[in-house]
Amino acid sequence: MDKTVFLFPGQGSQRVGMGLHLLQERPDLHELYYHPADEILGIPLSRMCWEGPEEALRDTAVTQPAVFLTSLATLEVLRGHGIRPDTVAGHSLGEYTAMVAAGVLEWEDALCLVRRRGELMAGVNREVPGSMAAVLGLDLPTVEEICAEVAAATGQVVEVANDNEPGQAVVSGQVDAVALVRKEAERRGATKALELAVGAPFHCSLMAGIEEEFAADLARVSFHDPRVPFVSGVTAQYVTSAREAVECLRRQLAGRVRWTGTVRRLAADGGARFVEVGPGKALGGLSRRIVPEVPVHATNDERRLARTLAECAPVETAV
């Protein structure tokens, strides 16, 4: 069976003005999601999505709920046109929206969790300043080897955080160690080794210290078994129970994002079209390079959303 797969983006997809095109399509989204989100968090989140300033959206504690909220509103627009997923997955933060789409979490609970997640991650960065960098043009074992060598030489933390696609790995850790990995990667033939504009060293062992505290936050929320098949980026495997979903969100704080394996699993299990649901289009690019045979649809602006609605909405047939 040909399946529609919804992919939900994570941090890095944010931009000032995101979601405004959704309100043109569905003005009721303001009262359905945006105004309640502002009230729940006690911050003008919707205004920061639409108007910025950009500096506010760089704050991890704001970025994460802002991306989540935009993806949630996009999901509602797609549902309103009868476009529903057969399977879902999310990249890092995107797993929270994927869990809402799969019926694992209520959106209000997910919003509070991503806000808390962002606050805890930002706190780690204040204590041990870190950074992340994308290394292009080297295979994963080589990047892992460079990280191990730099960590051994410096005594600092630097690890592979994301296996995004063959030939693209993201490293995460302390600032000086990440800089040394970039330099060594370029020496060994990387086409690029770019520092990423992120607010903390995500998905590395520096985040291990907040796992217990965040586990307590997770324990206060009701999780449900997935009603829609959900593949976790932590394991590249299906999550089949509420208990597994909780463990996935705990582990992903310091765990690697296995996006290459996730996308390959989705395609191998019948994914015939991917829809990136949210403000970015990076996941579409990654997916095209991992499984070029699977078409990808975007929703991040008015033009792309209109095209996706036209191409993916079910055709009504007269009886």
Any descriptors?
single chain, about 325 residues, alpha/beta, six-stranded mixed β-sheet, five-stranded mixed β-sheet, 14 helices
Care to describe what's here?
With 319 residues, this protein is an alpha/beta fold. It is 49% helix and 16% strand. It is built from 14 helices and 11 strands. The protein has helices at residues 20-25, 29-41, 45-51, 54-57, 60-80, 94-101, 107-127, 140-154, 175-187, 211-219, 242-251, 259-268, 282-290, 302-312, and strands at 3-8, 87-90, 130-136, 158-165, 168-174, 192-195, 230-231, 238-239, 257-258, 271-276, 296-297. The strands form 2 sheets. Strands 8-7-2-1-10-11 form a 6-stranded mixed β-sheet, sandwiched between helices. A 5-stranded mixed β-sheet has the order 6-3-5-4-9. Helix 3 crosses helix 5 (60-80). The mean pLDDT is 95.
Contiguous uncertain segments of 5+ residues: none
Give the N-terminus to C-terminus distance in angstroms: 24 Å
- Rounded radius of gyration (Å): 19 Å
Strand percentage = 15-25%
The share of residues in helices is 40-55%
Number of separate helices: 14
In round numbers, the mean pLDDT is: 95
Quick one: biggest sheet?
6 strands, mixed
Strand order of the largest sheet: 8-7-2-1-10-11
Q: Label the overall shape.
A: globular
Q: From the helix content, strand content and strand pairing, which structural class follows?
A: alpha/beta
Listing every helix as H and every strand as E from the N terminus to the C terminus, the arrangement reads EHHHHHEHHEHEEHEHEEHEHEHEH
Count all strands and give the number. 11
Oligomer state equals single chain
